[in-house]
Amino acid sequence: MQVGLVGSGNMARGLARGWRRSLLCTDPLADRAQALADEVGGTFVATNVELAQRADLVVLCHKPAQLDAVAAEVAPYARAVASILGGVPLEDLRVAYPGRPVYRFLPNTPVELRQGVVVRAADAEQDEALDAAVAGLFAELGTLVEVDDALVDVAMGLMSCAPAYVALLVEAQVDAGVRRGLTPDKASEMVVATFAGTAALLRARGNDTLAVRREVTSPGGSTARGLAALEHAGVRAAFDDALGAVLGAA
């Protein structure tokens, strides 16, 4: 399947690195599209029209506000369209690309390592073979989770924004260690490795967060005191507020 990326920004770059195949690339900034094509062994294409004519699947990686303008160029020629545009539901994609198979996905940045999460908006069958091929393409990038189209933005607030949240949590924990004498490099090494290992442990435990916490939390012990301090500081409310802020801005 020949894939074409309309837009060559950060998320397009993550997809391209994760797919590890020759891609067609366009962007309003030609140098950016050329750089991405060079990096992944793909092909720079000068126009969206040419990309749509050559691609089996057009992946929309442009800004959501450009939906109609891009569709005016791409829709007459596209064979199938997959969108990663935040806040653009399936119905809007169908209006922009009438008579074409359309798919809605939302990835996060770890897809470039094939360790990301990709949310897929549930939809009725369009073409059995094509549906499977497109889903398989995005499944190469990590964990593929299907949710109702109306919940994709909620999912975005959990997984698409989460790499920034995790990075902030790492920074906060490293800062706490540095204030108490650890060097930044040693603190970072320990915290990042602990986050990665804990994620693997949670997966091995079937995502049972309570079980993992209990394994390291003795009654009245140091971990219990640390958890109590986090709860007192409102860590759960902070994440709920963050999701509310994301959805309020969508």
UniProtKB/TrEMBL annotation:
GO terms for molecular function: pyrroline-5-carboxylate reductase activity. Residues 151-246 form the Pyrroline-5-carboxylate reductase dimerisation domain. Its EC number is 1.5.1.2. Pathway: Amino-acid biosynthesis; L-proline biosynthesis; L-proline from L-glutamate 5-semialdehyde: step 1/1. It comes from the Bacteria. GO terms for cellular component: cytoplasm. NADPH binds at N48. SUPFAM superfamilies: 6-phosphogluconate dehydrogenase C-terminal domain-like (SSF48179), NAD(P)-binding Rossmann-fold domains (SSF51735). It is found in: Cytoplasm. Its main location: cytoplasm. It catalyses: L-proline + NAD(+) = (S)-1-pyrroline-5-carboxylate + NADH + 2 H(+); L-proline + NADP(+) = (S)-1-pyrroline-5-carboxylate + NADPH + 2 H(+). Keywords: Amino-acid biosynthesis, Cytoplasm, NADP, Oxidoreductase, Proline biosynthesis. GO terms for biological process: L-proline biosynthetic process. InterPro entries: 6-PGluconate_DH-like_C_sf (IPR008927), NAD(P)-bd_dom_sf (IPR036291), P5C_Rdtase_cat_N (IPR028939), P5CR_dimer (IPR029036), Pyrroline-COOH_reductase (IPR000304). It holds the Pfam family P5CR_dimer. Residues 3-74 form the Pyrroline-5-carboxylate reductase catalytic N-terminal domain. HAMAP family: P5C_reductase. Catalyzes the reduction of 1-pyrroline-5-carboxylate (PCA) to L-proline. Belongs to the pyrroline-5-carboxylate reductase family. This is Pyrroline-5-carboxylate reductase. It comes from Baekduia soli.
